[in-house]
Each structure stands twice: as structure tokens, then as C-alpha cells.
Amino acid sequence: MDSLKLSTILLSLLSLAIITQAQDPTYLSHYCPNTTTFTTNSTYQANLNLLLSSLSSNSTRNINGFYNVSAGKDPDEVYGMFLCRGDVSNSVCRNCVNFATKDVLEKCPIEKVAMIWYDECELRYSNRNIFSTVDQDFTIFKSSPNNVTVQPESFNQLVETTIYDIAARAASAPSGAKKFAVQQANYTGVQKLYTLVQCTPDLSTAGCSRCLEGAISKLGNCCDRKQGGRVIFASCNFRYELYEFYNATAAAEAVPPPSPATPSPPPASGSKTSGKGKVDNILFNCHVVL
Ligand SMILES: *[C@@H]1O[C@H](CO)[C@@H](O)[C@H](O)[C@H]1NC(C)=O
Ligand SMILES: *[C@@H]1O[C@H](CO)[C@@H](O)[C@H](O)[C@H]1NC(C)=O
Ligand SMILES: *[C@@H]1O[C@H](CO)[C@@H](O)[C@H](O)[C@H]1NC(C)=O
Ligand SMILES: *[C@@H]1O[C@H](CO)[C@@H](O)[C@H](O)[C@H]1NC(C)=O
Ligand SMILES: *[C@@H]1O[C@H](CO)[C@@H](O)[C@H](O)[C@H]1NC(C)=O
Ligand SMILES: *[C@@H]1O[C@H](CO)[C@@H](O)[C@H](O)[C@H]1NC(C)=O
Ligand SMILES: *[C@@H]1O[C@H](CO)[C@@H](O)[C@H](O)[C@H]1NC(C)=O
Predict the structure, then answer these.
(1) Which of 3.40.1050.10, 3.40.30.10, 2.170.270.10, 3.30.430.20 is the CATH number of 140-243?
(2) Which of 8, 17, 256, 267 lies 20 to 30 A from 134 at CA?
(3) Signal peptide span per the entry (predicted)?
């Protein structure tokens, strides 16, 4: 009897431990062309390992969810950085970066240039200096399989103008500060649109604007009438959904919203309501282009 009691207690302690344990980040995609590779035990590999441990150890004292570092000397120098989503906590950021430094070597064991994305963070490295440069060479499109049914044209328009507004806000952050913004807008009477944009903080205002404008220009390719979507480059990304996918409190603490002055055009009095509340957060990878 007592042993049964004990095992019950142990079991509940165990499940508590599992619940409290940090969750793995949500993997999105990775990219590592095998056109440039290193060999086992090469100087490049040693430098890469050094870089990854430096990124990992510095993930605890990152400023603005971002850290960039290089390792080694010229022909074998490795440049790397991580970026956490602007609203995630330090512990979620650290957990994501630590996970990424291991995961990336499993997915890209011999490649010199690699990028890996999760919902919570991004990690990348290269044999070229990638700091303060806009990188839009590789694009990830993601979109919800579900279409909006109420006034899709004005929905597309609302998505574009809202993301455009916050892109300007994120880009205008001073050099080195978080280049991040979120905004909600009214879609139908019951549905709200939630948008998020972010650039790596090493970009200039002009660089961040250019990067996000490039991403916004792909809205038609990825997200026409879709209930949710994302365009992700190495240097910047945006996401929108009909549910609150970010922590609005943390986002407001990270970057205080501007004074309320710019109401977006609200379409639709709402005819048919197409499924309400929390919509699916299962996003499909539509296509990946180079
Ligand atoms: C590089 O990738 C291509 C396409 O995925 C594959 O066919 C090729 O075998 C790879 N080469 C090496 C050296 O791994
Ligand atoms: C790499 O180095 C380790 C330890 O020095 C050694 O055991 C291994 O055989 C080396 N591998 C290659 C492919 O040179
Ligand atoms: C980053 O990590 C490296 C190696 O772990 C350490 O030497 C360095 O001081 C750290 N930098 C900062 C800013 O904490
Ligand atoms: C990070 O990047 C900046 C340029 O944006 C550069 O000046 C700085 O030296 C880099 N930091 C490290 C530790 O390499
Ligand atoms: C959304 O619209 C596209 C294109 O019109 C269509 O192919 C797709 O089946 C629709 N998705 C759903 C879930 O109805
Ligand atoms: C959205 O609608 C609510 C009530 O209908 C209103 O109070 C709010 O100001 C609107 N928000 C925006 C951003 O237009
Ligand atoms: C959202 O962020 C706030 C402030 O950082 C935090 O207190 C809260 O626990 C977060 N909520 C969730 C659901 O993570």
C-alpha cells in the first residue's frame, strides 16, 4: 500500500518535472547549400565549434535577443549570429539558441554556411562577414491552408497596410536596438488581425526598411487571402495571423507602441463568420525558393 502511495507521488513528481521542463523550440526550416563544405578536423570545423559555443554561452547575456560573433582567422574565419523573436523571454531565447547550436550540426554537418529557423529564434553562420548586411537570398514562405471568406480583397489590403506601418516603426529603432514591432487591427467585428515584423538589430534603418519592403512585396506569392502567413529572410521577417500568436504584454514591454493616432481602414460589417476564435496554427510550407 505504502509503496503504491509512494509510486503515485513519484509519478506525479515526474509528470510535474516533465511539464516544467523547457520545451524544444518549434522548428520551421533550415538552409545550408552543400556547395561549400569543410572536412572533418579542419580548422574551419574547430572555429565553427568555438563560434557555436560562444553563441550558446552568450545566449544568457544577449542584448535585445541578438548576439553576433566571429571565430578564427581569415581563411577559416566563421561569422555567426542569433536573433530571438522580440517578445520571447530570456529563458525561452536561451533555450532556443542552445537547441539550435546542436540541431544545426545535425541538419548541416559539413556545410560552411547555414541558417536555421524556429518560431522563437533564428541562428546562422557563414564563412563570409554577414554582419550589418541585408541578406534576402533565401526565402521561406509559410501560409495557413485556410482562406478568409469575408471581403478577401480588403483583408489582403489590411494585411499589407498594417505590416507596412509596423515595418516603418521597427526600422526606425536606433542602431543596435530591437528592430521589432507588433500591431493588431480590426478585420471583421469579431476577428482581429495580429501582425509582427522584425529585423536583425545590426541593420541600419535603411537596411531594415529595404529588407522588410522586399518581404512585403512577396505577400501575393505567399499569402493571398490566407488566414495566416509569413515571409522569412535571413535578415528580416514578418508574420500575421487571425489569432494572437505573440505575447502582447512582453511585446509592449520590449518596444513601447506609438501614441494611438493611426487607425487602419476597417473593412466589412461581417456577413458570414468563417470559423471563429483561435484558428489553426498549423502552417504549411508552401514553397521554398532560392
Ligand atoms: C548536395 O546536395 C545535392 C542535392 O540535395 C545532392 O544530390 C548531392 O549528393 C549533395 N552533395 C554532397 C557532396 O553531399
Ligand atoms: C579527427 O580527430 C580525432 C581526434 O584527434 C581522430 O580520432 C579522428 O580519426 C580524426 N578524423 C579524421 C577524419 O581525420
Ligand atoms: C561570449 O562567449 C565567449 C566564449 O564563451 C566569452 O569569452 C565572451 O566573453 C562572451 N561575450 C560576452 C559579451 O559575454
Ligand atoms: C557584431 O557586428 C558588428 C557590425 O554590425 C561588428 O562591428 C562587431 O564587431 C560584431 N561583434 C563581434 C563580437 O564580432
Ligand atoms: C483556399 O483557396 C485555394 C485557392 O482558391 C484553394 O485551392 C484551397 O482549397 C482553399 N483552402 C481551403 C482550406 O478551403
Ligand atoms: C477595433 O474596434 C474596437 C471596437 O469595435 C475599437 O474600440 C478599436 O479602437 C478598434 N481598433 C482599431 C485598431 O481600429
Ligand atoms: C507574457 O509576457 C509577460 C511579461 O513578460 C509574462 O509575465 C507572461 O508570463 C507572458 N505570458 C505568457 C503566456 O508567456
Answers:
(1) 3.30.430.20
(2) 256
(3) 1-22
